[in-house]
Design goal:
Elements (H helix, E strand, L loop, with lengths): L1 H5 L3 E9 L4 H15 L3 E9 L7 E2 L1 H5 L5 E6 L4 H8 L4 E6 L13 H20 L2 E4 L2 H8 L6 E2 L15 H9 L4 E5 L8 H15 L4 E5 L6 H13 L6 E5 L3 H10 L2 E4 L8 H8 L4 E4 L4 H5 L4 E3 L4 H13 L1 H16 L3 H11 L19
Parallel strand pairs: 1-2, 1-4, 2-3, 4-5, 5-6, 6-7, 8-9, 8-11, 9-10, 11-12, 12-13
Helix pairs in contact: 2-15, 7-10, 8-13, 11-14
Length: about 375
């Protein structure tokens, strides 16, 4: 009934940058697909679009002429799109909150990024209050909205199988399979809040006491955080690990899939995550996960991996070594991870989208405040 009621509605999205491979962009594309499958007219408006997605977005000027049934703003930083959202005559405005990394993480790395984050924090409460509804992609993010005395409905991110129809890069897959050393993996931006230095410390313990040849792969870009990347490389040299800490830069889905499918363990020591999509992807591909309990990590992983409350490199190095050496424990973790991912299917996501964006959006908007939410 809800799907029938949605047919013919217009739902457009605003996202500052439609990137390749990041969590926000993955959700934007999954929503666009879901709405179109549900019979809606749906377009994506972005200020910047990755070349791979050329033709999938509309320009800012196009959006200024539109008055859709629902306008959705993906919120994670200050952006000119925030002004477009404010001025919109859409029947309903919906803000999807993806969290804002605290600016202090970038104080010594990039002042411009820090200023953009601060601008995003300043605008957040106002934009939430003028929204008809607020959605968050994790209970952790919803909790931050509650600090304003408002409520957000949670729409968890899905694993979209349409993204992973690609085959693993054969060269990288063959290289990893031929190299019998343990391969530790982290996927995500080279950013200070990710605390990648903690992974290097764990690798040092492994080399000192357990697995002398283990390799750490850091998959992700360092655009705007080059100073942090330089500091990590210097640290690796000082620890004598320059040949064992590998920075790949940005990779295609084919290349990332090869790492997910052929690495030994996925590690995450991040101290601020609004969702942490890569841990979900790692579990999807059968990779055991060990992650530090910060932000949304515990709810994203659930029972699918090991969530730890310590940063002690000695303890974590021993834990990684145990997981590398205990085949039964490893198999149990892989099974638990896949069970957790089953709850994040695209089909369930689409059902949730139909529930949240149902037919009454075409009757002139909800007309209530953001403190009320669809349950």
């Amino acid at each position: 009934m809800e799907e029938e009621a949605m047919k013919g509605a217009s739902i457009h999205q605003l996202v500052h940058t439609l990137s390749y491979g990041d969590a926000i962009s993955s959700e934007v594309l999954a929503l666009n697909r879901a709405w179109r499958e549900l019979g809606c007219s749906s377009e994506i408006v972005a200020l910047h679009t990755h070349p791979r997605y050329h033709g999938k977005t509309k320009h800012f000027e196009w959006a200024q002429e539109q008055s859709p049934d629902t306008l959705v703003l993906h919120y994670s930083l200050g952006s000119p799109l925030n002004d477009l959202y404010r001025a919109s005559t859409a029947k309903e405005r919906v803000l999807i909150y993806h969290n804002i990394t605290p600016p202090h993480w970038f104080r010594a790395v990039n002042p411009r990024v820090r200023r953009n984050i601060e601008a995003g924090i300043r605008d957040l409460e106002e934009l939430c209050r003028l929204s008809d509804r607020i959605i968050a992609d994790s209970p952790y993010n919803a909790g931050e909205i509650e600090a304003f005395g408002l409520t957000a409905e949670v729409l968890p991110l899905p694993i979209d199988p349409s993204r992973w129809t690609v085959s693993a890069n054969p060269g990288i897959a063959a290289m990893l399979r031929a190299d019998t050393r343990p391969h530790l993996l982290h996927v995500g931006r080279i950013a200070p809040n990710k605390r990648l230095e903690d992974l290097i410390k764990i690798l040092f313990v492994l080399h000192t006491a357990f697995h002398k040849k283990a390799v750490l792969w850091l998959v992700g870009i360092d655009t705007d955080t080059e100073l942090y990347g330089f500091a990590l490389k210097r640290m690796a040299r000082e620890f004598g690990l320059e040949d064992y800490v590998r920075f790949t830069g940005g990779l295609t889905d084919e290349e990332v899939r090869a790492f997910y499918q052929n690495s030994s363990i996925y590690l995450c020591m991040s101290e601020h995550e609004g969702y942490c999509y890569p841990v979900l992807e790692a579990m999807h591909f059968g990779l055991p996960v060990i992650a530090y309990d910060a932000g949304a990590i515990a709810t994203t992983i659930g029972e699918g991996g090991l969530v730890v409350g310590t940063k002690d490199p000695g303890l974590l190095g021993a834990l990684v070594a145990e997981l590398l050496d205990d085949a039964e424990l490893r198999a149990d973790m892989i099974a638990a991870g896949r069970a957790q991912v089953a709850a994040a299917s695209y089909e369930r996501f689409r059902e949730n989208v139909a529930r949240l964006f149902r037919g009454d959006l075409r009757s002139g908007g909800r007309g209530d405040t953001a403190t009320e939410v669809v349950r």
